[in-house]
Design brief:
Layout lengths: L3 H11 L1 H10 L7 H12 L4 E4 L6 H11 L4 E5 L6 H5 E6 L4 E6 L6 E5 L6 H13 L1 E4 L2 E4 L5 E6 L12 H4 L4 E4 L5 H12 L12 H13 L4 H15 L13 E3 L3 H17 L7 H12 L4 E2 L1 H5 L4 H11 L4
Parallel strand pairs: 1-8, 1-9, 2-5, 5-8
Antiparallel strand pairs: 3-4, 6-7, 10-11
């Protein structure tokens, strides 16, 4: 039997770094607490993140700030229609002096990768990124290179401008652990942002962790206790997207074209554990599951024409599921 009190005390003492890290990031990133929490969930549970929001909401700055705070290598790749897979992964260069080919590694060889406006690049480039995300390795010529851990891809897409974009295939979207939707800051937050940008010196962060600390923290996430009742709650939520009528959600039957894949169950459990750790708790409660549920499921539920005609989106469906499924 697991001693929950002992486990909770241990995790509370070993997760002190979370508060320090969040405080350091908050020196530069004003507001956007939900985004910072979700980025940390992805980082601590080894899952990639898709961020959707209009330009200017500090998506790039947040990721750069996090990279500086954990002393990690950071790469920003601007996705464009003429981008080639080799621009991402690297290529073989012929060395005339030595009369042989040498490998020139691309920007994918970093700890934190910002794939800016991922939906602007064609399928070939997206599939090259997908291999790196899934296999944690890159093949250049006949050589295969392991990517350095921690390795996290944070892809952004602009929800407004759709001209010249390539929609991400469902199979690729499913590889992202979380899809975060971010909105504008409040008036008071924007006042502080404005003042910071007009000041003589912009705030900066100090490196307070290193990549090895993040790998240790990932092991700590696995130690967070999850009761069987919470497991069943997660499974009920995911299965209700596939067979709504079995969960008294008959009205959703005509609105969902396909439900969430088994990855949803895995990621919802992992994200709930990581969220509990961020809250400095050694066990998962239903509120942790509900907190990350939208981020895990919003890009995994297919909508029918009826849903689109009635202006119903995946957020509405998730809300209906959470309001109906019994909380343990």
């Amino acid at each position: 039997m697991i001693d929950i009190k002992e486990l909770n005390d241990r995790i509370q003492s070993e997760s002190v770094f979370i508060d320090v890290l969040v405080k350091e990031i908050a020196r530069v990133i004003i507001g956007q607490k939900a985004m910072i929490d979700r980025i940390l969930v992805g980082l601590l549970s080894n899952g990639h993140i898709l961020i959707e929001g209009v330009p200017g909401l500090a998506k790039t700055l947040a990721i750069k700030t996090l990279a500086s705070a954990i002393n990690a290598k950071f790469s920003r790749i601007q996705f464009t229609p003429d981008l080639l897979p080799a621009d991402l992964t690297g290529t073989m260069i012929y060395n005339q002096r030595h009369e042989q080919f040498t490998v020139r590694k691309g920007p994918i060889f970093a700890n934190l990768i910002l794939a800016d406006e991922i939906n602007r690049a064609p399928a070939k480039v997206q599939s090259a990124l997908l291999e790196a995300m899934q296999e944690r390795q890159v093949t250049i010529g006949e050589e295969t290179f392991k990517l350095e851990e921690p390795f996290l891809v944070l892809a952004t897409q602009n929800p407004i401008e759709q001209e010249g974009t390539y929609p991400l295939p469902e199979a690729q979207v499913d590889r992202f652990m979380l899809k975060i939707v971010i909105t504008y800051p409040s008036k008071e937050e924007e006042r502080i942002i404005m003042r910071n940008n007009l000041a003589t010196e912009f705030p900066s962060v100090n490196p307070i962790l290193n990549p090895q600390d993040i790998l240790k923290a990932r092991e700590l996430v696995k130690d967070v206790y999850m009761d069987e009742k919470i497991e069943n709650y997660i499974l009920d939520i995911v299965f209700s997207t596939r067979k709504p009528s079995e969960f008294k959600l008959e009205k959703l039957q005509q609105l969902i074209s396909f439900g969430a894949s088994p990855r949803a169950s895995i990621y919802l459990a992992l994200a709930s554990k990581a969220f509990a750790l961020i809250k400095r708790r050694g066990f998962v409660i239903p509120e942790d599951v509900r907190a990350v549920c939208h981020d895990v499921l919003r890009h995994r539920i297919g909508l029918t024409y009826e849903a689109e005609a009635e202006n119903i989106n995946s957020e509405d469906i998730i809300n209906e599921i959470l309001n109906t499924i019994e909380v343990p």
